[in-house]
Structure formats: structure tokens, C-alpha cells
Amino acid sequence: xxxxxxxxxxxxxxxxxxxxxxxxxxxxxxxxxxxxxxxxxxxxxxxxxxxxxxxxxxxxxxxxxxxxxxxxxxxxxxxxxxxxxxxxxxxxxxxxxxxxxxxxxxxxxxxxxxxxxxxxxxxxxxxxxxxxxxxxxxxxxxxxxxxxxxxxxxxxxxxxxxxxxxxxxx
Length: 170
Fold this sequence. Notes:
By secondary structure, the protein is an alpha/beta fold. It has six helices and six strands, in the order E-H-E-H-E-H-H-E-H-E-H-E.
């Protein structure tokens, strides 16, 4: 009997500031997309930010998949993860199959760009939870989508009907 093929490696990029209702819409859209990509559980790659990244990870877990985390910087948890989101971050980080560090000590745009590029390097496909609006810095969702596409990584943009962000800027 042949060995099971390796799972498809799927990365996530997307907005952090999703409304609660939007998180539900995004989770369902992700389930549909992940089933479209593969008929077996996938292996996700994420920076584990609030919003799209964590919805992605929970969806992958619900579907029997695994994931790894690319941390932008050593201080990422305290510098970039809001106090209210740290318990969820800690729980999901502990469940990761692997954790990769970019080598940056401090969170910064350069660290986030490095993490996004490492994420894209590790995947066969990218899913972006993105409203289509241009971002305001080099690590924005639109820049990661552009980077992936320029490097031949098939990319799907999801923004379900009725989806909303709480504030602009990511």
C-alpha cells in the first residue's frame, strides 16, 4: 500500500481586525477553500496574529490538519499580540507542530516582512483574507499577496459578503 502523500502546505495572510461576525464568515469561507484545495487535511503556515491567522488555525484544527508558526521576532507576543488575545495566542502556539523564528529580536516592519516572506517560501498555496484595500506598510496583506504571486505561489483572496473590519490600517 503506498504511503499517504504529504499534506498540501497552505499559508495565511490577512487582516487582524475582523469583527466577530466576520470571523464566523471567514471560518466558513476557509473551510470551503481548504476542501477545494485538498481532499485531505492540510498543513498550515501562519504568523499566528489575531484575526485571520487564528481563525485559519482553528479551522485547520477542526478539519484535522496541522500547522506551523513563523514568529517575526522574539518580542512578538508582547509587542504585537494584544493582552486580550494572548491566552488564545499561547494556546495555539503550544499546539503548533513547529515554530520558526526569523532571527529578529524586535517586532518591526522589517521583521514582519521577513516573516511573511518565510511563510510564502514554506507553502504551496496562499490564502489571503483581504478586503482588497491597499495597506499602509511593507508587511501589509496586499504586499504579501503580491510577493506570493510574483514568486509563483497560487493565491486565493477571500472576503465573504458581509465581512467587515473593525478599523482600517492592517
